[in-house]
Amino acid sequence: MKTIKLAAALLPVAFIAGCATGPSAEQQAAMGNDARKTAGSLIQQLGGELKKSLEANGPAESIAVCKDKAPAIAASLSKSSGFDVKRVSPRNRNPKGVPDAWEAEAQAALEKRLAAGEKPETLDTWQVVKTSGGKEFRYAKALVTQQVCLTCHGENIADGIKAKLAAEYPHDKATGYGVGMVRGIVSIRRPL
Ligand code: HEC
């Protein structure tokens, strides 16, 4: 009787452990690496476009780069990588850029690591999470503000830019930043 009870008690544990296995640590690391490359590519492509436009057209005209090019680059990377790629922030400018619970937690954890002295370049994290339909791979990379970001996300934004932002984004929460803050994350996911 005792043994049967014990076996019954162990069953749920084995079941949960069974569900939690796979993808293996190696497979997760490989996906993490792919996601890291994809996020790096987004940052590099968008940064390049932004720099080019800022130099050629000035900041007010460069708002369009962030508005149109950022989602376009994310969409093309989603297609080529097989991941779903986007940018989100709890203080979002684009009303669609609201983080879900995992993204908000990931950003908070990355903010803590930044505060603890970690370099912005290495601030990323990933996890395999359970969903109602199965499992999903999730990845977050912190986007840390540099001086150039403050032109459109800082405390003292020039009037011309402010007016344009107000017209395009009436519910903008993405101002008032200083250098070295987590502006948001590149969020990457793939159902498994
Ligand atoms: C020329 C103005 C401009 C500059 C410079 C700029 N941004 Fe933005 N940023 C925007 C606009 C406009 C959006 C909204 C884009 C959209 O509609 O999806 C945005 C959106 C974002 C988002 C997506 C989340 C959200 O708030 O909607 C992140 C993250 C972000 N910016 C980070 C940065 C970082 C980091 C820098 C510096 C490397 C930077 N931005 C420089 C104008 C700018």
What oligomeric state best describes the polypeptide chains here? single chain
Q: Count helical runs.
A: 6
Structural class: alpha+beta
H-E order: HHHEHEEHHE
| Main sheet: strand order | 1-4-3-2
Ligand roster? heme C
Number of E strands: 4
Spans with pLDDT under 50 lasting ≥5 residues? 1-19
**Strand content range:** 15-25%
End-to-end distance: 41 Å
Q: What is the average of the pLDDT values? A: 90
Helix content: 40-55%
Dominant shape: globular
- Radius of gyration of CA atoms, rounded to a whole number: 21 Å
* Domains (count): 1
Largest sheet: 4 strands, antiparallel
List keywords for this structure.
192 residues, alpha+beta, four-stranded antiparallel sheet, 4 strands, globular, disordered N terminus, binds heme C
What's this model, at a glance?
The chain is an alpha+beta fold and 192 residues long. 54% of the residues lie in helices and 18% in strands. The chain contains six helices and four strands, in the order H-H-H-E-H-E-E-H-H-E.
